[in-house]
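Quick one, tokens below:
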């Protein structure tokens, strides 16, 4: 009888422990014990993600379909139902765009922590309960990720969300040029990111006008009489160099575009602490298509004017975008190595890519790439070498006046120097894309360099 009672007691304890653990697991986020509507959504997402594309393509929920079912979208140079067929004869390396697909393997490894499932009734209101357009949780986690990366000081500053850095750049121009006695001159040091010129010209009004190269406003008489708004890209796109404002005068106002100021792409000599800094999730997590960026602003009046711009443009950033950004950034800050995992991964990958490219280019007399000296990195707490997002290639031969055409004949698509208002002896090659595109570019470059007389690549 005693044994039976002991057995019953043991079974009872075990059952209660099971129910307690089960209940805790399912009630942590206030859910019922059994998943209901999210089960179907999760199953659909998993089914598409599990479609085999031979690591040379991906299938997507919103992608191509055959007979109503998702199918593989193959990378450049690959074809077939599962993207397993290589197309060597027609393979052209696309090194034009800045798609940061090099981070895709990191997120595949962290699939569970970064996935988003939201209800059909998620955040249907125009605003959050505090009547703002900004998720406070997301803002808090953005401050956390900067603290981990040691790349920017956010304490005592305002944070504003925008549609990528693109929208915030013009919101900043709008805010800094408001209520001036004369139109502001908007400038950028060459070579410069082409959007500064094209977007400023597109939205040009009585308050500002794009005036070109910032070096023209060094020791210029104009600098003492009118307001200058300078875009400072640091690290610079296309050459990866750290920069500071170059315009001189009493009324110079700077917009620091720090899209690439992460340990992925540059040494972090010190946390950035400028009055107006702009960042984007595309170069932090790689999610360029989410179109999410943020500004860190010191001056309250400038912040309020930028907020007005975003409000008039689209009444704040999509709630779905914000919840995805929150999930991604929280996955970073709560990840391995006290939130530093993605930075180690990205830096190591970009450094290795730069070293492979440098090895090929070091054998060439026809082509050269930019020199970026080693610098002390505040994040790694040591001296580190370069890991830029782009190679700024120069054609050295006198007859090679259009470097983009030269590389094009070698089956490499780059971005011509004239797009950056610079010489066409230069071309930008993206190092940010997926492994297939990067390896294809290396292969074609190696072939081009090996054609030079007396060249032997190790």
């Amino acid at each position: 009888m005693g044994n039976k009672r002991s057995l019953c007691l043991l079974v009872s304890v075990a059952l209660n422990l099971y129910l307690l653990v089960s209940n805790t697991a399912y009630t942590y986020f206030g859910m019922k014990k059994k998943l209901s509507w999210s089960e179907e959504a999760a199953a659909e997402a998993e089914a598409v993600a599990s479609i085999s594309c031979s690591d040379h393509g991906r299938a997507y929920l919103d992608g191509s379909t055959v007979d109503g079912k998702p199918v593989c979208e193959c990378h450049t140079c690959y074809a077939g139902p599962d993207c397993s067929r290589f197309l060597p004869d027609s393979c052209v390396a696309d090194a034009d765009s800045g798609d940061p697909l090099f981070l895709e393997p990191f997120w595949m490894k962290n699939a569970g922590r970064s996935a988003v499932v939201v209800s059909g009734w998620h955040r249907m209101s125009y605003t959050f309960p505090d009547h703002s357009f900004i998720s406070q949780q997301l803002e808090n986690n953005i401050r956390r990720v900067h603290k981990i990366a040691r790349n920017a000081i956010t304490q005592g500053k305002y944070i504003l969300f925008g549609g990528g850095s693109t929208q915030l750049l013009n919101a900043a121009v709008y805010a800094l040029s408001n209520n001036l006695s004369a139109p502001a001159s908007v400038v950028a040091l060459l070579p410069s990111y082409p959007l500064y010129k094209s977007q400023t010209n597109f939205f040009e009004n009585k308050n500002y006008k794009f005036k070109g190269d910032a070096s023209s406003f060094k020791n210029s008489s104009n600098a003492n009489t009118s307001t200058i708004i300078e875009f400072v890209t640091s690290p610079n796109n296309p050459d990866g160099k750290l920069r500071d404002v170059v315009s001189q005068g009493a009324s110079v106002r700077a917009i620091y575009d720090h899209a690439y100021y992460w340990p992925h792409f540059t040494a972090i000599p010190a946390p950035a602490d400028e009055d107006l800094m702009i960042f984007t999730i595309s170069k932090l997590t790689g999610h360029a298509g989410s179109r999410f960026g943020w500004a860190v602003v010191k001056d309250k009046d400038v912040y309020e004017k930028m907020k007005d711009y975003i409000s008039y443009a689209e009444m704040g950033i999509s709630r779905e975008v914000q919840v995805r950004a929150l999930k991604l950034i929280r996955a970073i800050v709560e990840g391995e190595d006290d939130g530093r995992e993605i930075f180690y991964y990205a830096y190591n990958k970009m450094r290795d890519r730069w070293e492979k490219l440098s090895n090929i280019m070091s054998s060439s007399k026809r082509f050269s790439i930019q020199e970026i000296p080693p610098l002390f990195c505040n994040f790694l707490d040591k001296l580190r070498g370069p890991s830029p997002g782009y190679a700024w290639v120069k054609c050295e031969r006198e007859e090679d006046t259009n470097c983009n055409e030269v590389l094009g004949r070698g089956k490499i698509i780059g971005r011509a120097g004239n797009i950056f208002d610079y010489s066409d002896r230069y071309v930008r090659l993206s190092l940010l894309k997926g492994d297939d595109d990067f390896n294809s570019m290396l292969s074609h470059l190696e072939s081009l360099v090996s054609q030079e007389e007396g060249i032997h690549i190790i």
